[in-house]
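Protocol step 6 of 9: fold each sequence in the batch and record its structure tokens directly after the sequence line. For illustration, a two-sequence batch is reproduced in full.

Sequence one:
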Amino acid sequence: MTTQSSQSAQQTPAWQYYQPGAYASANIRITPTTLADGRDFFYLDDDPEYVSGKKTRELHDPRHLAYRFAPHLDADGNEVPYAAPQMRRDPLTGDWIPMATARMNRPITAGPGATAKGNPLAARKPGDPYQDGEVPDTDYNVVIFENRFPSMVRVPGVSDTVTNVDGNPLWQQKMAGGRCEVICFDPNEHGLPADLPVRRLRTVVEAWAFRTAEISHIDGIEQIFPFENHGQEIGVSLAHPHGQVYCYPFIAPKLETELQHTEAYHERTGGNLLRDLMNAEIEAGERIVMRNHSWVAYVPAAARWPLEVHVAPVRDVLTIDELDDQERWDLAQMYSTLLKRGNAFFDKGDGKGMDLPYIAAWHQAPIHDARRANYRLNLQFFSFRRAANKIKYLAGSESGMAAWVSDTTPELIAKRFHELGPIDIDD
């Protein structure tokens, strides 16, 4: 692969469906390349020198990696084909369960079980003995790339037809032909997402929109799920500030349940359940924790988690790529404020708060399902920390029966957020 300038890459973009707004067109430059094993990689630069083309990114990946889907040798020296990830359907629930065996080999940098010699999400460090990082350049703003150890991936030449496990029609199986991508929010591997400037988070929002627009047109994808796991207690294997985009070849169980209820509500009332829930929270007032021109954040009246906030756009929007420039800026501002207040939520006695473990989950309308018309974009942000020194464990009722028992009330969660800052956060 030859090195090319960011200017030439911009002239021949690798996308067809993403349409940048006025701000992104002038202030964010997307530069595509391909990693040594054939995976897609994108730089998203907001540094003016890179946006202008005065500086360019390194696009050549110097690692000697085999093609990602190449055959390999087994323990006996025999060549075997790449093992495409499989998924099986649970006959009791109808859920598809991907079997992500490749994840057993992924590097881990967080926690006592760390195995990696270096951080694969960090920028390349000249002279560093660890040179298996995923970023070709020695610096970056935001980058996106296909996961090296995906739980779902479409393998060329492998059929995705349904077959039966052990020949028994009770157990269906097929290739887990989805897609998994990683979004690194910042080159500072020791930083926190809550500490990023709003301008950088605005670039992250653009990354979510860019990938949603493009991946929506990949064959076999039914749902696009941008999300962020943060904190060792959540189970994060890489401590670098980053998120992921899972692209399912099915509708995930959580969204499927929501679609059933939003569709039934529409058939019964003619309304949009998510819009009516937001408006009802606004009318009630007590559980609203933040709002700006374009977004409303509230603790839902039936919150499950000891810290839970839902964020909804004021305007009816189905997916992130439908947001306009103002909505994307307002989202970056609200997300920044939410992360900061989340870190201050639990007081250890020193008034400094803590690095909150959390999951930020984007619920978007599915791609092809007709029920998408009655859905609505929303972010569900939650943490299983219930005190500065306590975690909510999902025990018998939650894990065994999915019957939730809350450790607090939504009103108390909202009251704590009200102590941390004003509801109106418009500049």
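Sequence two, same batch, same settings:
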Amino acid sequence: MLDFSRQFAAIREEVMAAIEQVCVSQRFILGPEVTTFEQSAAAACHVPHAIGCASGTDALWLALAAAQIDQPTQSVITTPFSFFASASSILRAGARALFADIDPLTYNLSPASVAEVLATCPAGEVKAILPVHLYGQCADWDAFTTIQNQHPGLLLIEDAAQAFGAAWQSAPAGTGSDGTLTPAGALGDAAAFSFYPTKNLAAFGDAGLMTTRSPQLEERARMLRAHGMRRRYFHDEVGWNSRLDTLQAAVLEVKLRYLPQGNQRRRDLAANYNQLFLAAGIATMPTPTNPTTIADGVVLPYTHPRAQHVFHQYVIRAPRRDALRTHLTAQGIGTEVYYPLPLHLQEALKPLGYKPGDFPESECAAAEVLALPIYPELREDEQQTVVEAIHTFYA
């Protein structure tokens, strides 16, 4: 699925020099490299504030806790088709997690499904919507902004763990929007990024980042990430230890410089996959009227016309997914399933009260999605090998 050594070989000298500088300075916790990276990341996301933390999961928790969404009488709506942290961060903050189903085209949280859930809740109970920019594609932000405008006080918090560098182009002129391209991290009231090693912007371990345009949320997040301290050893609230290591910040600062070209390479590789699959005659391109069905073969990823996708993952749908994956494993081709069991069916989340059949689009996607190898250093002949192996399976 990934070959980290290829990227490291290309930037080894810069990374090692950055690490050595931290070792020489001996400032390992919230050193100057953390501030430098926060400033660079904020600039990349077009926001005034970026707060480094220990993980993407902590970034989600910080966003919620900074917004004081921390009571069991408060609810947050998110997607059941995501990594566990999208829901666990809500519960960890102390609020109630509510699910809404996904759009079968993009796998992102469906605004229509969210509106249905909101209609069943008492006024003011839902404090935030937490859409996930799944696989590196922004959720339909125009639709979520419309929902927010209809519910005063409702916050939009982006789970952008897989989407650093992704962007959304607002609706064209005449719809009340200027049509500009806005990066993930600047769309909502706050956003959370993960720099887990498999991400398109990856640390050498765990690391995360919260972004916001709000000085109030920024100030509270910085306080909460350091045990609730505004002054050393004076604790205003019960916070947490979630500081970004200086070594990780130094590595991320180097990698951030290469991210735009890396993301463009991912888009190019995705386009090449599409061409290879279509040429092989074993795939269809999904459409709004026919998003998921195919007799035998694969359904290719869909990119929303206003989304700038970064293809953190290249994910196909295959009705015989498990058999296909077994076949590819036998050919020495790595794959992964993101995610095999929706969150509403996870054992740990049974107390939320959901059951099979509650979110059919999420359950269907969980049974069919398959992520294929994609990373900037992947070669096109390797892509050909992948497609040929899948063609052999269907032949």
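Proceed to step 7 once all outputs are recorded. Observation for sequence two: DSSP finds eleven helices and 16 strands in the chain.
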